[in-house]
Model the fold of this input.
Amino acid sequence: MRRKRIRNWENRLREEGYKITSPRKTILSVFEQLGGHPNAREVFNDLSLRSPDIGLTTIYRTLELCVRLGILKKYDFGDGHSRYEIANEKTDHHHHIICEKCSKVIEYRDFLDEETMLIKKIQNKLERKYHFKIKQHALDFYGLCKECIDEKQGSE
Done:
């Protein structure tokens, strides 16, 4: 799966006329290893020992290029940093639950039938109301994770 995904990324870059450079390959490999939703600084920190020649500017440029090409998705979870994740097939649809205190991000995938039906109902109503064809959506929930709630209660 990993090799196929990397080949797909490389093909996407070539299709758009971009070279497959060593820094681009290395930066994209971080997403296979780290998973989650790293920001540019976290990618830089991960690469600093393995590839100290890759600077933060190169990382930012590569991340933005990959977002434009649909290789990565970019998110703003309100912590002051753009965060990125691999743009997967439609079968990997998920939402996010974000802790406002520690910035922990939980990917929510295990939708109940009622939740799926409700989202489809909302999407259909919006499409009719605004004469708009919705191709995708993002739904993020903000609050406090269990650890931050426990920490808060312990300090009271």
Remarks:
- Residues 91-156 form a domain with the Dna Ligase; domain 1 fold (CATH 3.30.1490.190).
- The mean pLDDT is 87.
- The longest strand covers residues 72-76.
- The helical segments are 2-15, 22-34, 40-50, 56-68, 113-130, 146-154.
